[in-house]
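lol ok so funny story. i was supposed to be doing the assay writeup but got distracted and ended up predicting the structure for this chain instead. priorities right. anyway since i did it might as well share w the group, maybe its usefull for someone
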Amino acid sequence: MTELYFKVNAAIKNIIGKELIYSDNIAVVELIKNSKDAQAKEASIIFKNENDIEKGSITISDNGKGMTLSEIKEKWLNIAYSEKKINKDNIVYAGNKGVGRFSCDRLGSKLVLLTKSQNGDYIELKINWEDFENKNQNDEVSTIPVEYDILTKEEFLKCANLTDFDTGTILIISSLRDIWPTNKLKKLISELEKFSPSLEDDFTISIFSENQDKDIVHKLNTKINNNILDKVSFKTTYIKSKIDEEGKEIRTTLSYQGKELYSYVVPNPYKELKNISVELHYIDTIARAYFTKKMGIRLVDYGSVFLFYNNYRISPYGNPKNDWLGIDQRKGQGRARYFGTRELFGRIDIIDKDGTFDVLTNREGLARNKAFHELIAYDKDDKINLFSEDENTIETESYGYVINIIRQLEAFIVEALDWNKFIDVLNPESKKVISDKDILQNPQRYQMKTIEQEKVRMVCERLLKSNWNIKKLSINEDLIKHISDVANQKREEFLQDFLEKIEFKSLNDMTKHEKGTVKRIIEEERERTKKAIEDKEKSDQKRIDTEIKLHSKVNEVIAQKKTIEQINSINSFLKRSSNQDIEDLLVSMHSILVNTSAIRNNVISLLRCGAISEEVKEFALEIYEANQRNDNIAKFATLYNFSDKDNEINGELTTFINKYLEEYSSQKTKNKVKIINNLNLNILVNREFIPLEVMMMLENIISNADKAKATELIINNQLLEKKVLFTFKDNGRGITNPRYLENPRLIFDKGETSTTGSGLGLFQLKKTIEKLGGTVEILNYNKCFELGVYLDAA
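and the output, tada:
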């Protein structure tokens, strides 16, 4: 028998190069992936004369491990060879086809490759891709030479236009095949922003160009930011699910506005799937407005549900108008019943060390094999067979894993929350979709729909009847009881966010629309404050009645303790009580808290507008102080129901502060500052003090840390001879205003502030400490802010 052999014609270059990878953006991303796989920490893309095909060039460089001459010969020039397939170190790579390097051919007809490995030579490789084109039948790819040189360091640096170089690879692509106008550069940047979740963690990308277009210049000549999901700070309703690394079980949690509503564990019925995580967010009217503000682009133009494979995004999944999960197709069957891509934003992450999935050679998606089918099967005629746990019998049919997770979120939003829509108070039957602009134009007219607790509970419990054999289901009953309050809170946060956005504008700088919105919000708050006062009067009478009923027991506790232990006792009693009067009181106090927060923000906006007289400013400061007292009274009543909140008590201050910090940390879900309480409770400070004033002091310290962008506040105390020193240190930005750097104690004067506050917090703090017979000092303000409070020891 005579043997024959395949021949590889030079035309193979076109098939795996410019014809296979037809998108310039994908070509650039492929080359960046190679940099990441080469263990680079940084990669850069430099465009020169990108709008001139003949003179233009693209340079892609990295500081990875580089290549030796042997590696160039045996690996880089070896078509379809990839050492990434031979993965002895269990490292996850982006590619393993051995053709990604031919993306250079897609971008330009000429390539200069410069590379240096550790202890290796400085190497230059030149390729003219046109040498492989228009060849005859007998022209094999291996018969066409490419040139290389071993350079000196000086020659290498001159060629690379650098002053120094350690290890890595530089690709200089010229004779471009297409120009790169502004809109094309914008799309490339958008693609790179979604490139990998590890951006900014262990790998950075920078992009450089002389393009001066105002729509793009702020994103050039700097590092690319990763804008996927974790950078979006608005609150949404979302679901997270994960199949563990061994593929044994699925763990899923659904959260409503940042609060966990339910979670469950189920044996994984998908035999091809493991090490996969899903995170999906429902984007409603308010969330959509936040997204546009934060990202500078509408969600519909940014994308929907992205897929990451081994830490790299797979295009075109999630791109605008890409319906790879059949979501829009299903919505066409009933717009009021189903999600569309405009309502969903999220990501799917696959870590595949076994090659279960397969990236298509042209990088346009994953191969539609059995694993991919189990992942996203959405057609009712193409469901997955789910086997019993012993894998011997088919128990039922089901949609793909991701589709099931989407439908669980969808069921909660559509059936339990009724889309959590706003209603037109003047026209409740209207079917009009209410936008964020409608809400800002008339806050009083558009309110949140009431959420029925029973519908929420029904949807949660229905999970037990699903195709999945759910064994461990946990439901947050407390959240179900207060779910309408959380929804209304989100509306309030949206309005407050608008006020914060314009708080540094004077009245003259505001647009007509902004002035009108501020006026309407203030009018709404006046009405709500009026109602809150009426509610408070009613609740005061109920409180009096309640206190009469509880008089003997409360007085007994006060007489015996008269210290912070009475707060614990009464608080515990209230938590156990089912008395309707107490519940009404707490509801009223919650309403007061909502209104005092709004009043505080409006007064701050008024103080900053710069167009008011000193007389009005003094009047506004008095309103601020009175409102702050009301705010703390309501908080105090909500947390403690403490009868002496506004009178002096003779107690131990360290214990009081410690208890208040514990309660504050457990109650304050909005606060971003983590409180690290290191108080030594054996250091006693006996004083006569008004609890309300100490509370206000502590809240002002925490609030200032939050405004200074601090993430933590550390509280300590120590004994210094006959003095006790309390220290409050945050890791915020410290004092940067030159006015206060010259004289830091100015910051304790009324109206002075180094944050975005009103300038009253530290003024009130100083007054409180002086009443306690102590002094306050600024101990440190360099990239932090540390206060020291000195009091006589017990």
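The two ends are 105 Å apart (CA to CA). Residues 550-587, 639-645 have pLDDT under 50 and may be disordered.
back to the writeup now i swear
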